[in-house]
Amino acid sequence: MDDNIVKVAVIGCGRVSGHHQRSIADVNGGEIVAVCDLDVEKAKTYALQYNIPYFDNYHQMLAAVPEVNVVAIVTPSGMHFEHATEIMERYRKSIIVEKPTFLQPSQLEDAFAMAEKVGVKIYPIFQNRYNKAVKRIKRALDEGELGKIRIVSVRVRWCRPQRYYDLDHWRGTFSHDGGALTNQGIHHVDLLRYLGGEVTSLNATMRTLGANIEVEDTVVSTMTFGAGAVGNLEVTTAARPDDFEASLSLVCENGLAQLGGLAVNELQVFSPDPDECEKFSEDIPDAYGYGHSTVYENIVADMKDEKPFPVDKEDCMKTIKLLDSFYRSDEAGSWIDPASVGQSTRLGRPNEEISNLYRTPLPE
Which of 30, 63, 288, 300 has the fewest CB atoms within 10 Å, i.e. the most exposed one? Predict the structure, then answer.
């Protein structure tokens, strides 16, 4: 790479985009060089902050700023696959993809095949893995401090009223958003297997209880793990009148560990050593936390061939297949093995009318 600096362009200037841009700017060896959004005023706001060019068309951006090494895709979830494959195939750029990486396992398979074909890389975002509290529990599990896991429990009790879903056309749709599990619960789904191990079977029931949307705003599930543990998951955005809880707990052979806070940033219970709770909890300004900085440190290190990015295709695929399996179970009304063949008929299904709202045409 020229001057050994990883140069990043960002597509999509919504809420989480600011975390990407601050993280890029703060990481040694990284530089933000352009931003793009269909709403050009959103892009302009960030451009003025970082003194970089802004665009409302990413084709024009990549033509005007060819030194870009990697493109961060921070667009609606249902557009990730289309944007990613077009940027990789047409411009031979590596990509960073916000959560959930793709809505369908088949999309993830096809995207990684494209990346290999054209010689670029895909960097999935699971930033909560890098929180201090999460890392402390991961270490305790890996080193045997907590012993064998017996029960894994997730509870996300958040409030998303109708006005939240009415903000954009993509919200609350199976084609471009997914419901409470895909949008709000994805990080807890990832941590289920990151900390608890691989789920071997699950049974899920989904309901829409608090808003006029097509996707679920409530899901309850029971599951089994390959190592013998059992688990349960409750995720809802139908809590009223506010957010109440977002926790993940592990009942283990040698004690109890519980994560909580806005973004699993608090070590709320650690019975082997309660003094660790304060030491490994951190205050965060919002639900995104600080994990994006570590993500970008890892991206820079990988692109400089210093160390591999910690989330590879297989790891990402297992999380996306686990996510998909909750929907498959609800559709089938039965237990599902996340490793089995198949995918949801609802999540990520095409909707050209909505896609056309977020597509970027090639310049004439």
Answer: 63
What is the Cα–Cα distance from 47 to 211, expressed in whole angstroms? 36
Task: Determine the length of the chain.
Answer: 364
The answer to whether residue 316 is domain-embedded is no
Residue 264, domain member (yes or no): yes
CATH number of the domain at 113, please.
3.40.50.720
Q: What is the pLDDT of residues 318-328, one digit of tens each?
A: 999 999 999 99
HSE, side-chain direction, 13 A CA sphere, residue 255: 14
Amino acid at 213: I
Whether 143 and 276 share a structural domain: yes
* Angle between helix 40-50 and 17-26 (nearest 10): 20
- Residue 212 CB contacts under 8 Å (≥ 6 apart), including other chains: 162, 165
pLDDT at 2: 52
CA dihedral over 173, 179, 184, 185, signed as positive or negative = negative
* Together in a domain, 18 and 69: yes
Q: Is residue 364 part of a domain?
A: no
